[in-house]
């Protein structure tokens, strides 16, 4: 049984008698411990898909099963990280993380919640900033707090919607490495299952086991592609290899047709 099974999912929006199909017959699965990225052009329904997985939107048709059970609203089995940090501005970094832990792991004592919050803030390199409010932190630091919170909640599944989209290139690389390190874990605990939405093709390749490419109007799965590079991946070395360039060009060609080979460049945003 797959960890997440998305079966013939369709989502229609109706606004002022205008009927719009955002997702049409989307079917794919994510295995336990797998890191899957969803890429696709703007408006192809990536965020809509994640909202349904989060349990805050409902499909018009089809279903999503987690561990074989249909989703019934939001749940403590899923942690979410969005582009806009979504921290509570009136809570310190430490309280933001501890609050998430309280929601997801209500049996922990208060002291234990703060111990877990401290541990994860240390792991994302924010030990000196635990007492700061979001407004006192940079965008990259705020996103670290959001990641620390999601990981401290210790959910089986992480749903990430362009979590590094608003972060500059250098900090994005640091956060990507950090996410992979935390996802890979220490071998003692089970890996999280991650569904990660991005516009950045290199980010998708470097992070994922598999990439689900979507097309728009209406949003549907266009291709599912296994990323053929072994882990742990050394970014600096991997991106220099002909295999990486060939794979990247293949993705671009799939996405744009035969113009993919001609785009090249350092960073491609789909
Ligand atoms: N509440 C809504 N009412 C009507 N249409 C909506 C609503 N939410 C999303 N849509 C439409 O559904 C489509 C899919 O939107 P969605 O935000 O899921 O796309 P996306 O792939 O995440 O886009 P982006 O990459 O730009 O974030 C878009 O055309 C959007 O305009």
Count of DSSP H/I helices: 9
- Sheet with the most strands? 6 strands, mixed
Strand element count: 10
- What is the distance, rounded to the nearest whole angstrom, between the alpha carbons of the first and last residues? 32 Å
Tell me the helix content. 25-40%
Task: Give me the Rg, rounded.
Answer: 19 Å
Low-confidence stretches: 258-268
Q: Please provide the ordered H/E string of secondary-structure elements.
A: EEEHEEEHHHEHEHEEHHH
State the fourth-level CATH superfamily of one domain: P-loop containing nucleotide triphosphate hydrolases
Shape: globular
Short synopsis of the structure:
The chain is of the alpha/beta class. The chain contains nine helices and ten strands. Helix 2 (93-104) packs across helix 3 (110-123) and helix 4 (139-152) runs parallel beside helix 5.
Describe the structure.
There is one protein chain. By secondary structure, the chain is an alpha/beta fold. It has a domain at 1-70 and 203-270: P-loop containing nucleotide triphosphate hydrolases (Rossmann fold). Helix content is 35%, strand content 25%. The chain has 9 helices and 10 strands. The strands form 2 sheets. It has a 6-stranded mixed β-sheet with strand order 6-7-8-3-9-10, with helices on both faces. A 4-stranded antiparallel β-sheet has the order 2-1-4-5, covered by helices on one side. The longest helix has 16 residues, at 169-184. It is globular and about 50 Å long. Bound molecules: adenosine-5'-triphosphate. The site of adenosine-5'-triphosphate (ATP) has 12 residues, from β1, β2 and α1. This is ABC transporter ATP-binding protein. Keywords: ATP-binding, Nucleotide-binding.
